[in-house]
């Protein structure tokens, strides 16, 4: 795969996020979501793809598209995003097999109805979960939503717990997040 083609897709997606329609607050939220969630998921996915021998192009695109349906507020965003991803890639000249593989990775990133099967699926699901633990993710959303960071962290504790238990497919990454998860547990459980 030509890296320039994938970078072009990334630039196009960023432009879509930055051109989101809606109120000023909604636009800020969507831009913040790109900067503080989608980009970290992409960076983590590329890093883990190299580390675990997964296809980095599939992981790169899977990460960029994993929450694509949320751009238009559609749910279930994994299922609808998978369809949108495949169509998007086919319209831009990617072959059917490649587009389908990226689409399947998007479909499985939530680890709910569709469980990751390939190494690429596991990388993107793990990266998505890890990005939920980044302070910039919660701080960015808290600022936009005018909520307190601690309040956001506490209200999202259950999701973080589920992500930690069900979406981290690699032991080294689980160990990396172990201390952070303990910190979240203490903050929530011992207030």
Please provide a brief summary of the model.
Helix content is 75%, strand content 0%.
Helix/strand order, N-terminal first: HHHHHHHHHH
**Radius of gyration from CA coordinates:** 16 Å
Largest sheet, in brief, is: none
**Total of helices:** 10
Portion in helices = over 70%
Query: How far from one another are the termini?
Result: 50 Å
Please state the average pLDDT score. Answer: 87
Decide which structural class fits the backbone. Answer: mainly alpha
Shape: globular
Poorly predicted runs: none
Give the strand content.
under 5%
How many runs of DSSP E, i.e. beta strands?
0
How would you describe this protein?
With 191 residues, the chain is mainly alpha-helical. It has ten helices and no strands. The protein has helices at residues 3-18, 24-52, 56-65, 77-91, 96-108, 119-131, 135-145, 149-155, 157-166, 171-189. α1 (3-18) packs parallel to α3 and α2 (24-52) runs antiparallel to α3 (56-65). 37% of the residues are buried.
Descriptive terms for the model:
10 helices; mainly alpha; 191 residues; globular
Give the secondary structure arrangement, pairings included:
Blueprint: H1 3-18, H2 24-52, H3 56-65, H4 77-91, H5 96-108, H6 119-131, H7 135-145, H8 149-155, H9 157-166, H10 171-189
